[in-house]
Design brief:
heterodimer, A: 141 residues, mainly alpha, 77% helix, B: 265 residues, alpha+beta, six-stranded antiparallel β-barrel, 12 strands, 31% strand
Chain lengths: 141, 265
């Protein structure tokens, strides 16, 4: 499952760094936080942010700072409430995308803010299905 | 089960590291390190863009005719400029000689849009940077058209704002009528010719080109670069200025190489 998330993160970095302005790396990092939850996610977010800044010719480090802040908020929230739910993923991705486009403006930002939780929900549901069918096939729902 | 609260020191460590990276980026050591990473990622950028790029070969008769039409329009603009120069009083020799410039070809390695291949990007990334002589505010052209301006430049890459991006502005003229104004980017491939006095004439379908704003050090935009074509005019007798919507002349999604005007030292 972890390997799948890492592959998805690399694909997201390539797509967002060169082809699209959708916050794919942010969405994948949020999903990784939901599934992995350890402090390793900060190292991954730091590295992903650096690479994304280099590919996008932005001030190096700024994406890392943003990603780290978002993931910290999620992990602090996780202390009190359950984050392994579709509703949390939807709300977290919507709000994260909203602030992302405040920091990194792009054209068609409103559509992208609305589309981000939809993409995250699709990925989350897919991972849930993969986990049930492949990794834990005997586990009941 | 992970240790609760144990992630906060890790967070601050990486936050500090990010801040250090950000601060070092402005230094020669930082930019060299980033340049090294850019060189490593460069083959990936070229590979990805070539896989996702649209088919650029234009073999149809319609495309050939469109290209010929654009070329002829460009020549008409040039002849109009030359006619104006001949008619002007030139009994004084121009002593100013701006530093000659050359064209540096650069491949587009990044074109971030909402829907790649469908939406128009407002910025592009090219594979040339400071080491190749690309400076901030360098003008980027494609044939006789002004594509945009360099806004950020690292060792091996440069970020270009396209002329229709919001915030972009440049002085412009309509060679056909001599009207002067300012072109402003409106997004979505549209430009606005603003600040044109009511006494000047704007004609629909007229070419709009740069007026030229070369600085003492040779930077700035040369005159005669095509910015677009007038598609609609807004003229109100009660207003101070008239405006016109201008269409960007190129489909940037179909271009893979642009040219940067760089100074010869």
């Amino acid at each position: 499952m972890r390997n799948l998330l890492f592959v998805l993160l690399i694909i997201a970095m390539v797509l967002e760094g060169m082809l699209t302005s959708l916050p794919l790396v942010l969405l994948v990092l949020i999903l990784m936080t939901v599934y992995m939850r350890g402090s390793t996610i900060f190292f991954i977010a730091f590295l992903a942010g650096i690479i994304l800044d280099i590919l996008s010719v932005r001030q190096v480090g700024i994406s890392s700072i943003f990603f780290l802040s978002v993931l910290l908020l999620i992990l602090l929230y996780e202390r009190k409430y359950e984050i392994t739910s579709l509703l949390f993923v939807l709300i977290a991705c919507f709000m994260a995308a909203f602030f992302y486009f405040l920091v990194f403006p792009a054209p068609n930002r409103f559509i992208q803010i609305l589309l981000s939780p939809v993409i995250a929900a699709f990925l989350y549901s897919s991972f849930q299905l993969i986990e049930k069918k492949i990794f834990h096939p005997a586990k009941k729902i | 089960m992970h240790k609760r609260g144990g992630f906060i020191p890790v967070f601050f460590f990486f936050l500090l590291l990010s801040g250090i990276f950000s601060a070092l980026y402005a230094t020669p050591l930082g930019s060299r390190s980033v340049g090294f990473l850019e060189a490593i990622l460069s083959p990936l950028q070229h590979g990805v863009i070539s896989v996702f790029a649209e088919n650029k070969t234009e073999s149809s008769l319609v495309s050939q005719l469109q290209e010929e039409n654009a070329k002829l329009k460009s020549e008409v603009t040039k002849y109009q400029e030359q006619a104006k120069e001949i008619h002007a009083l030139r009994d004084q020799f121009l002593t100013t000689s701006p530093t000659p410039r050359s064209l540096l070809p650069a491949k587009i390695v990044g074109m971030r849009a909402f829907l790649p291949g469908y939406s128009l990007p407002e910025q592009i990334v090219i594979d040339k940077g400071q080491k190749d002589g690309v400076e901030v505010d360098s003008i980027v052209v494609y044939k006789d058209n002004l594509v945009g301006k360099v806004t950020r430049s690292t060792d091996h890459l440069a970020l270009i704002d396209l002329s229709f991006r919001k915030g972009f502005s440049i002085t412009a003229t309509i060679p056909q009528t001599g009207a002067l104004g300012v072109i402003k980017g409106m997004g979505q491939g549209e430009l606005l010719l603003d600040n044109v006095v009511l006494s000047d004439q704007i004609v629909k379908d007229a070419e709009v080109s740069t007026n030229g704003s070369t600085e003492l050090d040779g930077t700035g935009s040369p005159p005669g670069l095509i910015l677009g074509k007038v598609v609609s005019i807004d003229k109100k007798p009660s207003a101070l200025f008239q405006t016109a919507k201008v269409q960007f002349p190129l489909d940037i999604r179909k271009i893979d190489t642009v040219f940067i005007l760089i100074r010869n030292n």
